[in-house]
């Protein structure tokens, strides 16, 4: 006689379904609220910018003028500034963050791990404004007198490192944002790397891999998707960083090939000019800048999701 | 013993009754707007609470733009603005809205050049620098005005405000008056399209940049420059004298400026011999007919106190008080506020 597995349905006790149903609806409500919130934010931004959209149309996105007196507005320098400063910060923070995470999960002796983890978490707790002040009074002078001078001397043949050095610059903004997104990239990378099964590492060792080869073949390629996700989360924060950036970027709406040149970001211009925007069109233009930032964040995330789909990792390599 | 629930309700009831009586004892008058006069307004409201404890003033320095918007939509009882309202904005007001000048301040030119020197500079030169036409410190235009000073052969780095502000309004208003080129290319406003230079956020941002980067020049409020001991230049006024920015030279500018009856005026480059040319006033925006009788009465009483006793507190905080003639005119207008 075979004992086929059966699922027996047990009648719930009377009155005990209440909490189940209540919980389900609370959870559905919470999830729905998030979607509703995003839609509402997008709608409010669109509604506030309709004056500017009517006046400037699509030309707003590639016009480089920002003249509040003549009421001629264009978002191109700000889009450029936001994307470039975020890109620089990713280029600095992701390798640094992943390397730190690797160190913490694979290489560090146990005693060293906890203090470093605490230090990284403290970095995340520092408010944006404090970073801005530190950037303005400590980082910028050092950059102006040491790092930028050295970069100009050694890499000055590249258009990236030409032009006068003021201290406040796109590169300074990128560095400050990198410091601010480092904790988030490191913590998430650490979690991702910890979730790589030990079996992967053991298999690689068994095949005769060295320490670095194990990390490269078994750990990093397995964790690739997760690490990419960590970078995307960092990028999300980088795109919206306002206070620290506005204190070190120089606030000049221009597009320049040089990283030493001052720039301007979408978030900074809104923070700087919104309270004194006395005319309706001016305010509407700033709303449209906010809408553009919202759209840029969504587009970047969507692009990242698409890239994620075509990526392998977080699972054994599929054999088909 | 009362059961726990009733005890809490009783406590809640007692507290709310207490809160209600406390609230009803004091009237609250709300204002919002300009950031420049925030310190002096705070002092006024503090001192006035001792004169009349039955009313409390609440002021939020959200910026002139915000102040104008709020008073137009009547979400506050009075507004405050560092620049006079434009005709377009004023036309949006539901009833007659009056401007009352309160105190004045000045924009000073601060700089970072080696050597403890006092710079002398005139309007067209400042315009040339901020237009990007004059690029070196030892340019003849600057050197000719400072014959006893050794100016360095260094690039001038211009620093301006990145945020919209009344300080920028006064500065660009002045440049528009002294330089037709500036008026044509840039114009005046709380935010403008700067031909050159880097932007710092707030007076702190500008002075931070100027302090740290050698060869910089920027504009900040007089009060700020004095309190932070920053060097500033003597500027040539329309009479040809180089004037040091002080409270007296600003009051002098007010005394000689041409002020129309609606008190919406610009006082840059006035004719006075001892007047400092880059000065500006800040205004309170009050409706000529107050909707709420009790609040209107208290507001008018405060304005009268401000113009008589309040003005005396201004120099202590590095603001220039209004000249007596102007105070008299303002008080006459305050008398005609209906409530």
Q: How would you describe this protein?
A:
- Chain A contains 12 helices and 2 strands.
- Chain A is mainly alpha-helical and 320 residues long.
- Chain A has a domain at 77-275: MetI-like fold (Orthogonal Bundle), CATH 1.10.3720.
- In chain A, strand 1 (66-67) and strand 2 form a beta hairpin.
- The radius of gyration of chain A is 25 Å and the shape is globular.
- Chain B is built from 13 helices and 11 strands.
- In chain B, helix 2 (38-51) crosses helix 12 and helix 12 (293-313) packs antiparallel against helix 13.
- Chain B is an alpha/beta fold.
- Chains A and B meet through strand 1, helix 5 and helix 11 of A and helix 3, strand 7 and helix 9 of B.
The count of DSSP E runs of length 2 or more, i.e. the number of strands of chain B, is 11
Largest interface: A-B, 33 and 35 residues
As laid out across the biggest beta sheet of chain A, the strand order is 1-2
- Amino-to-carboxy terminus distance of chain A: 39 Å
Give unreliable regions of chain A as ranges: 316-320
Query: Would you tell me which CATH topology of the domain at 77-275 in chain A applies?
Result: MetI-like fold
Unreliable sequence segments of chain B = none
CATH architecture assignment name of the domain at 77-275 in chain A = Orthogonal Bundle
Can you tell me the CATH superfamily of the domain at 77-275 in chain A?
MetI-like
Percent range for helical residues of chain A?
A: 55-70%
Question: Structural class of the secondary structure composition of chain A?
Answer: mainly alpha
With helices defined by DSSP (H or I, 4 residues minimum), what is the helix count of chain A?
12
H-E order of chain B = HEHEHEHEEHHEHHEHEHEEHEHH
Q: What letter string, H or E per element, gives the SSE order of chain A? A: HHEEHHHHHHHHHH
**Rg result of chain B:** 23 Å
Number of strands of chain A: 2
Structural class category of chain B: alpha/beta
Distance between the termini of chain B: 54 Å
Largest sheet of chain B: 8 strands, mixed
The biggest sheet of chain A amounts to: 2 strands, antiparallel
- Give the mean pLDDT of chain B: 89
């Amino acid at each position: 006689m075979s004992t086929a597995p059966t699922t027996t349905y047990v009648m719930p006790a009377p009155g005990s379904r209440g909490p189940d149903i209540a919980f389900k609806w609370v959870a559905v409500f919470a999830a729905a609220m998030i979607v509703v919130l995003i839609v509402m934010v997008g709608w409010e931004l669109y509604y506030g910018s309709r004056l500017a959209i009517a006046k400037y149309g699509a030309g707003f996105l590639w016009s480089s003028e920002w003249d509040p007196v003549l009421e001629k507005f264009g978002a191109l320098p700000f889009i450029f500034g936001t994307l470039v400063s975020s890109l620089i910060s990713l280029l600095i923070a992701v390798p640094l963050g992943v390397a730190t995470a690797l160190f913490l999960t694979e290489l560090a002796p146990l005693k060293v791990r906890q203090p470093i983890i605490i230090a990284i978490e403290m970095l995340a707790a520092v408010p944006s404004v404090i970073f801005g002040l530190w950037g303005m009074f400590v980082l910028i002078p050092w950059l102006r007198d040491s790092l930028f001078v050295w970069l100009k001397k050694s890499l000055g043949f590249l258009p990236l490192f030409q032009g006068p050095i003021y201290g406040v610059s796109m590169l300074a903004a990128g560095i400050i944002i990198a410091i601010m997104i480092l904790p988030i990239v490191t913590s998430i990378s650490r979690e991702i790397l910890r979730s790589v099964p030990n079996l992967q590492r053991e298999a690689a060792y068994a095949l005769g891999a060295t320490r670095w080869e194990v990390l490269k073949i078994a750990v990093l390629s397995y964790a690739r998707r997760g690490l990419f996700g960590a970078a995307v989360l960092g990028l999300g924060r980088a795109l919206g960083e306002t206070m620290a950036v506005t204190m070190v970027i120089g606030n000049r709406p221009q597009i320049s090939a040089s990283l030493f040149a001052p720039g301007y970001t979408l978030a900074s211009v809104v923070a700087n000019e919104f309270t004194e925007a006395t005319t309706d069109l001016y305010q509407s233009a700033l709303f449209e800048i906010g809408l553009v930032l919202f759209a840029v964040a969504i587009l970047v995330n969507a692009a990242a999701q698409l890239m994620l789909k075509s990526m392998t990792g977080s699972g054994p390599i599929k054999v088909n | 013993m009362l059961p726990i629930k009733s005890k809490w309700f009783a406590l809640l009831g007692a507290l709310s009754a207490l809160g209600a009586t406390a609230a009803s004892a004091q009237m609250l008058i709300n204002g919002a707007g300009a950031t420049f006069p925030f310190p002096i307004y705070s002092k006024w409201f503090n001192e006035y609470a001792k004169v009349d404890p039955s009313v409390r003033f609440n002021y939020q320095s959200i910026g002139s733009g915000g102040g104008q918007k709020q008073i137009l939509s009547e979400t506050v009882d009075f507004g405050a603005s560092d620049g006079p309202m434009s005709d377009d904005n004023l036309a949006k007001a539901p009833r007659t809205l009056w401007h009352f000048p309160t105190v004045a301040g000045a924009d000073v030119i601060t700089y970072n050049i080696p050597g403890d020197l006092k710079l002398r500079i005139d309007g067209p030169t400042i315009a040339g620098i901020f237009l990007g036409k004059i690029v070196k410190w030892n340019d003849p235009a600057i050197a000719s005005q400072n014959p006893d000073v050794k100016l360095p052969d260094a690039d001038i780095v211009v620093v301006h405000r990145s945020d919209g502000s009344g300080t920028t309004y006064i500065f660009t208003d002045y440049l528009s008056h002294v330089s037709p080129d500036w008026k044509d290319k840039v114009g005046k406003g709380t935010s403008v399209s700067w031909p050159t230079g880097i932007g710092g956020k707030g007076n702190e941002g500008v002075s931070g940049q100027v302090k740290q980067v050698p060869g910089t020049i920027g504009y900040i409020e007089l009060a700020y420059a004095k309190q932070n001991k920053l060097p500033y230049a003597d500027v040539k006024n329309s009479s040809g004298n180089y004037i040091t920015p002080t409270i007296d030279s600003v009051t002098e500018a007010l005394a000689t400026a041409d002020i129309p009856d609606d008190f919406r005026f610009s006082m840059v480059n006035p004719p006075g011999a001892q007047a400092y040319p880059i000065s500006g006033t800040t205004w309170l925006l009050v409706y000529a007919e107050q909707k709420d009788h009790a609040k209107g009465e208290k507001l008018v009483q405060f304005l009268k106190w401000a113009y008589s006793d309040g003005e005396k507190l201004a120099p202590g905080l590095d603001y220039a008080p209004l000249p007596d003639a102007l105070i008299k005119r303002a008080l006459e207008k305050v008398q005609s506020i209906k409530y």
